[in-house]
Structure formats: structure tokens, C-alpha cells
Amino acid sequence: MSARAILPVLLLLSFICSCRGQLRVGFYADTCPDAEATVRSVVTDAFNSDVNTASGLLRLHFHDCIVDGCDGSVLINQPDGQQENRAFGHQGLRGFNVIDQAKAQLEATCPGVVSCADIVALAARDSIALSNGPRYEVPTGRKDGLVSAISDANNLPDQDDPAEVLIAKFRAKGLSEKDLVLLSAAHTIGTTACFFMGNRLFNFRNSGGPDPSINPPFLQKLQQACPAGGDINRRIMIDAGSHLRFDTQIYANIRAGFAVLQSDAALYSHAATRPIVDSYLRSPAAFPGDFAAAMVKLGTVGVLTGSQGEIRNVCSSFN
Ligand code: HEM
């Protein structure tokens, strides 16, 4: 990362270090010195066998943080099936096995030290780096939450939400319009199931037709890829033409009507978010550092630290 790109990250880190004394870079330096290297190595192995690991782990971190804070609650499985990860908006989440593997290795070397919430945050950071995105330090020291309820995940940002609703949902978590635009650029990598495309392609806001903001030739391609009544599990790239490259092409696609997800397209329909999209198209060099800073900020949402929460033995169940 260039010196210019790294500045916002450094400023944000100093803010976090002063306001959240217990979340800090290098939290495990004494208690589990190889913690970050262990996570990196497990994520790298998984990425080398399946490149889609990266987008899965990046989305997992967002979904963990946006419901009840970054506390590993999305990882929990319960016998009654009423855990958070069963919520409608969490469909398609993946990467749980990678987190479990990293946790198993860490428990073998440093039992009871490294939280699942931190492993998720570190795995997202490593996934971005492996996808040639920005490299940044992750403040650690999160504790794992003691609650995981499907009802807490009812109000997730949804791909059908208009921009003002997305803005309000992000604000409720302390994230700004700029954070919304930056973090949505995570869609520069990864795929979506046709499941999420139906309304946008065939019944946009109950109009009986497609979203008019889609570029017409592109609409034809999307409708061919995800036909009405077709296989809802079929996956298509979100950042058309650039879904394995971490770059600002996603913003160019949004501006030109080539957004795949409705929530991304919505960013260009609102007076508060459109200029932010345009600003990164004008100054793409500002994007990597700002994106990294937004990721660090996302990773502080609702964290438990110190005597709060627990360090789980196994990420999918409470102790
Ligand atoms: C603004 C609100 C957002 C909405 C409505 C939204 C919605 C979606 C949807 C519907 C998918 C397709 C899921 C699937 O079919 O498996 C998706 C994928 C993805 N999302 Fe988001 N998203 C949002 C924000 C974010 C943020 C903030 C991040 C990360 C910082 C993120 C990261 C990802 C990634 C990496 C994928 C690809 C996942 C994969 O390939 O498995 N999203 N998102």
C-alpha cells in the first residue's frame, strides 16, 4: 500500500487504540505469537484449493459484525436450529469450515486464547490480501458472544432495500454513507446465487418488470443466466468481468448500469452515495487505503472485550 493509502488506516488505528483500549494490533503477541500466522496459513491453503474461499470469508465477517457486533455469533449452531446463521439474509454464507480449522490449530498450540470473532476478522483481512486487495493490520482482542438468535438477524441489510434504508441500517451500527459505499465494494470479488436476483430481473419493486436501471443488453445476459423458474442455486459473478480482481471496476459497473446486486445499483440512485461512488472513480488511488480503514471500522462494531463474553473452545458452540 502506498504511504498515501496507508494514512487513513493509521489514523483510524490510533483512534481505535485510544477509544477501545482493549482492542489493539498485536493483542496476541505475548499469549499466542503465531496466532495471525496460523490463521493466514489456513486461509491461504483453503484459497489455494478454492479461490472462492476469499469472498466467502469476507462476507462472513460482515455478516458477523452487522448482527449484534463482531462476536462470532454467526458461527454458532444450536440443536433447535434457531441460531443466527439460519436467518434468511444469511443464506449462502460459507467459510465456516476454514474458521473451524484455524480454531482447531490454535487450540492445539494456545488453548483458550484466541477468540473465534478475531479469527473471522483476521481471515477476512487475509482473504482481501490474497485477492490482491489492500493489506492492513487488524486490531484484535475481541471476545466471543454468548447469544446467537435467528430473531436478531431479521433486520439485515437486504439486496431489495432502497439506498435510504441501507444508509439507515449502516448508521444504526455507527457506519456512515461513505462506509456503506466503501464496504459494498467488497462485491468486487465473489458471486451471488440466482436466488437473490429474481425480483430485480422480473418483478422490481412489484412492477412486474425488471429494474430499469440495468443496462438493456446486460439485462438480457442476466436474464439468460438466471431465467425465471430456473436454478436458484446457480451462481453468477457480482462484479461483471472483474470478479476475481480487487479493484474499483465495481464502481464503474454500478455507474454504467452493470451492477448485479440491486443494493449496489441503489448506491447510484441516492444523492448521498452517488458522489462517493463518483469520487472513487475519479481518484481510484484513494480506494485501497479508504477501503482498509472501513474494514477496520467494521471490525470494531459492537465488539466485546476484556471480561465480556468468552473465548470459545469450538467456534460453532458456546462453552
Ligand atoms: C450493503 C448491504 C449489502 C447487501 C444487501 C449485500 C448482499 C449480498 C448478497 C445478496 C450476496 C450474494 C450472496 C450469495 O448468493 O451467496 C452478497 C455477496 C457478497 N457480499 Fe454482500 N451485501 C452487502 C454488503 C456487503 C459488505 C459490507 C460486505 C463486506 C465488507 C459484503 C461482502 C460480500 C461478498 C464478498 C460476497 C460474495 C460472497 C461469495 O462469493 O460467497 N457485502 N452480498
* Bound compounds: protoporphyrin IX containing FE
Query: How many structural domains are formed by the residues?
Result: 2
Q: Specify the overall morphology.
A: globular
Q: What is the count of helical runs? A: 13
What is the CATH class designation of the largest domain?
Mainly Alpha
CATH topology of the largest domain: Peroxidase, domain 1
Count the beta strands. Answer: 2
Strand share of the residues?
A: under 5%
Low-confidence stretches: 1-5, 14-21
Q: Rg, please?
A: 19 Å
Coarse structural class = mainly alpha
How would a crystallographer describe the biggest sheet?
2 strands, antiparallel
Physical arrangement of strands within the biggest beta sheet: 1-2
Mean pLDDT across all residues, rounded?
93
- Report the order of strands and helices: HHHHHHHEHHEHHHH
**What's the CATH architecture of the largest domain?**
Orthogonal Bundle
Proportion of helical residues:
40-55%
Tell me the span between the first and last alpha carbons: 40 Å
Protein name: Peroxidase
GO molecular function, one term: heme binding
EC number: 1.11.1.7
Cofactor: heme b; Ca(2+)
Question: How would the blueprint of this fold be written?
Answer:
Elements: H1 3-19, H2 35-49, H3 53-66, H4 96-109, H5 116-130, H6 163-171, H7 177-184, E1 191-193, H8 198-202, H9 216-225, E2 235-237, H10 249-256, H11 262-266, H12 274-282, H13 287-298
This protein binds protoporphyrin IX containing FE (HEM).
